Amino acid sequence: MAQPPDTLKDKPAEAHDPYAALRIPAFRRLLIGGQFVMIGTAGQSVAIGYEMYQRTKDPLALGLVGLVQAIPMLVLTLPSGYLADVLDRRKLIVASMILTSATSVGLAAFSYWQGPIAVMYLLLFFDSCALRLGWPARSALMPLIVPASAFENSVKWRTSLGRLSAMVGPAVGGFIVAWSTPAAYLISAASTVGMIFVLLSIDVPQGRRVPPGNMLRRVREGIHFVWAKKVVLGAISLDLFAVLLGGAVFLLPLYAEEYVPPILGMSTAQSLGWLRAAPAAGALVTALILAHMPPMRKAGRTLLLAVAGFGAATIVFGLSRNFWLSMAMLAMTGAMDNISVVVRHTLVQLSTPNEMRGRVSAVNSMFITGSNELGGFESGLVGKLFNPVVSVVSGGVGTIVVVLAWARLFPSLAKVGRLAEVDASSETTPLASPPGVVGADLPDDSA
């Protein structure tokens, strides 16, 4: 019987094929379908923010949108990781998308008939719950479809098109909302339904899965794996502290207003728009370049240097008073961040056995989301206590210090070579089960 792709010991190809992942039909379908979903979701996000403010004229209404969507992330991400390792991941993702499609249709109906705002918040809460239900499964699905030798290439193409969708989506959403706000919700639902058919059209190897058991115990296994697998812990925590300390993007409105004079003929609002777009533009260009480059030979060192470069660019941006230099440094932060994303995501997925990927993806998601939110708070707090320049520059310096510390604390991270050769069984074996039976030696105390 053929082994699932994640267990194959693929040897690096002698000649680099920049389109290796795109030659896999299932990956192509998921990639294209995923971009339509991202654009549709971005349009819905623009619509809900616009509608809530237009109907209430209250900034707090926008804050509540974030709150009702953040609560499911905090509560459901880790349990969803357990479900991704226990259930059929494709079916779990389909169930999640059916629910998000239903909530989008509900939002369209309440928008069209001007239904109660409270019900729309409730629909957003359920939408976020459904999204979190399938999130870890979506992250853990790709290694079952793409072999290890092409996985780095697949991540490069996903980040390339993902950055493009992140730039196009809000713009498309703005045009749709200008025409019809309910239509934005319906288009989001249609994109998700289309992705359901894409998922049902492909064959996904099951791989090894965890038998159902005590959920809290299984979640603890995932946390223990991340803690014991130092290369995974190092990669995830490095990203956490880099985003936590290097949150210059949260202070861009202040910089556009007070520190970076717009060029001739440009308003402050237009200047802010260009500054906000610079990181995404830098990331997109870098992602396209990476997709055509051969696999990294020293991925661990590349990750450390990319995060250090992110910190250095943040420092220069914080001190800059020139518009074009500020644009260049923000583009550099996006470029360095994209390199970090490619290495970290590939490293975490390929360093993790299939039966643990759902839970490890959930832990990774908690780290990323938490660092984004806390990073904005940290930047604002330091900016308030001192000034925005101190906040941005100290964050960049702190990022470089973290890189130096992590190089010593996690020597296995710095030694990572080719990502396709990463061994998922090295360093630690948290599940000592007989072959083919995962978790069999662990007593099930769920009865």
**What percent strand?**
under 5%
Low-confidence sequence ranges = 1-13, 426-447
Q: Quickly give the CATH architecture of the largest domain.
A: Up-down Bundle
Q: What's the domain count? A: 2
- Give the overall silhouette: globular
What is the name of the CATH superfamily of the largest domain?
A: MFS general substrate transporter like domains
Task: Give the CA-CA distance, first to last residue.
Answer: 35 Å
- The portion of residues assigned to helices is over 70%
In this structure, how is the largest beta sheet organized? Answer: none
Mean pLDDT: 81
- CATH fold group of the largest domain: Growth Hormone, Chain: A
Order of helices and strands: HHHHHHHHHHHHHHH
How many H/I helical runs?
A: 15
* Class per helix and strand makeup: mainly alpha
Name of the top-level CATH class of the largest domain: Mainly Alpha
Q: What is the gyration radius calculated from CA atoms?
A: 22 Å
Structural overview:
With 447 residues, the chain is mostly helical. It has two domains: 191 residues, Growth Hormone, Chain: A; 204 residues, Growth Hormone, Chain: A (Up-down Bundle). The protein has 15 helices and no strands. The longest helix is centred in the first third of the chain and has 32 residues. The chain is globular.
Features:
447 residues; mainly alpha; Growth Hormone, Chain: A; 2 domains; 73% helix; 0% strand; disordered N terminus; disordered C terminus
Briefly say what this structure is:
The chain is mainly α and 447 residues long. It is built from 15 helices and no strands. The protein has two domains: 191 residues, Growth Hormone, Chain: A (Up-down Bundle); 204 residues, MFS general substrate transporter like domains (Growth Hormone, Chain: A), CATH 1.20.1250.
